[in-house]
Amino acid sequence: MFIFKKAVCLLLTIVLVLLPFTVSADEVPIDELIDDRVVTEYNSPDLTDPIVGAVETAGPIGTKLEINAKSCVLMDVDTGTVLYENESHLALPPASITKVMALLLVVEAIESGQLTLDTSLSASAHACSMGGSQVWLEPNELMTVDDLLKAAVIGSANDATVVLGEAVAGSEEGFVAMMNQRAEQLGMKDTVFKNCTGLDAEGHLTSAYDIAVMSKELIKHDIIKKYSTVWMDSLRNGESQLVNTNKLVRFYEGCTGLKTGTTSGAGCCLSATAEREGLRLVAVVMGASNSNDRFNGARKLLDYGFANWSYITVTTDPEKLHPVSVKDGVVDKVNTVCNERKSFLVEKQKVKTLLLETELFETLKAPVAAGQQIGVTRVYVDGKEIGTVKVVAETGVAKMTFMKYVKLLLNNLV
């Protein structure tokens, strides 16, 4: 029996060693990345939490976080509000976080109908020459957009990313031009892309702030979560295994993605997104000296955000509403309503200072359209106005004319 168990264990060990996991530059120690385009060392996936070191409890707003990286930022996805930052506009090499912009363009191409998940794409010789993180595509090998997205998002595959880019723009050069154009549209002033993979290249730079901007745009597309939240998957009918380079996907509550990056020029980088109780955050860490520092840094940022902010939903109190007088209308009053419910990002410690003040017009002049704004509820937190909620006319009121007056008079007489 003992011999049988020993034989089984030996067989399992051999299978695991031979299993064709994808090689990822994100999994190779930074001092071993002599050439970013050639990664030959095999790395088996770590199925236990690789993030060592205690992460202290998030402090209150104003706390200085110890983030062992060159720059970082924490941003609210829905409003773009920066909740924490350190050197957030410092231009640095982004490594594979570059793929966030590439993936944004691919997702937009899918949603516009240019591509479908079932579309099969042929790998070009150029795409197959990328090196670094890859799924070892062969020239002319066919793979669906769905599988290429798996490879690019989960495995950070450079070859798959280039194939997708070529499908969108015809060439990697054209695709990179589109990436830079989209960056300009998003107001990313610290960014210049030289390729779509993130391999180190002179002048290929962005900032933690800009990464947060493009990350929040990408994560708003639910389709990306089909890939960015997956811990393990496979390609080629199970022959090629994928393990997510973002350990937070497995080890951080509410994590929704998004992308790691590691090269000798960039160090260890991470754009991490997470959602809890309606609050969606993106934490970016750039230029960490090792993988643990980037993951711990992102955890600290996210913990800080979830501990100190929340969304509150407000609407106008119906008891504060009353009819408003209408001058020269077929009726002399119109009812007011508030159908709008709005959410506001608020510091948790200040929620109790919430104050609502409703103001209505004293008199309206006909005509009045149904849904026309005729008042406002102002939202204050800690004495500061943070937004407004519309109050509108419940129905329309036409302007009184001589003929309408005669018709109204006749109706009353009848």
Biggest sheet strand order reads 2-1-9-8-7
Number of helices: 11
Q: Could you say which overall geometry the principal axes of the C-alpha atoms support?
A: elongated
CATH superfamily of the largest domain: DD-peptidase/beta-lactamase superfamily
Share of β-strand residues: 15-25%
Architecture of the largest domain, CATH level 2? 3-Layer(aba) Sandwich
Level of helix content?
Answer: 25-40%
User: What is the distance, rounded to the nearest whole angstrom, between the alpha carbons of the first and last residues?
Assistant: 105 Å
Mean pLDDT across the residues is 87
CATH topology of the largest domain: Beta-lactamase
SSE series: HEEHEHEHHHHHEEHEEEHEEEEEEEEEH
CATH class of the largest domain: Alpha Beta
Calculate Rg over CA atoms: 28 Å
Structural class: alpha+beta
The major β-sheet equals:
5 strands, antiparallel
Number of strands: 18
Uncertain parts: 1-48
For the record, the count of structural domains works out to 2
Explain what the structure shows.
With 414 residues, the chain is an alpha+beta fold. It has helices at residues 2-18, 99-112, 125-128, 145-153, 158-169, 172-185, 208-219, 225-228, 248-251, 291-308, 402-413; strands at residues 71-76, 82-86, 120-122, 142-144, 232-235, 240-243, 255-263, 267-276, 279-288, 309-314, 324-327, 333-334, 336-337, 342-347, 355-360, 363-365, 373-381, 384-393. The protein folds into two domains: 20-308, Beta-lactamase (3-Layer(aba) Sandwich); 315-413, Peptidoglycan synthesis regulatory factor (PBP3), Domain 2. It is built from eleven helices and 18 strands. The chain has a five-stranded antiparallel sheet, with helices on both faces. The protein has a four-stranded antiparallel sheet with strand order 13-18-17-15, with no helix packed on it. Strands 12-11-16 form a three-stranded mixed sheet, with no helix packed on it. A hairpin with a 2-residue loop joins strand 8 and strand 9 (279-288). The longest helix has 18 residues, at 291-308. Residues 1-48 have low confidence and may be disordered.
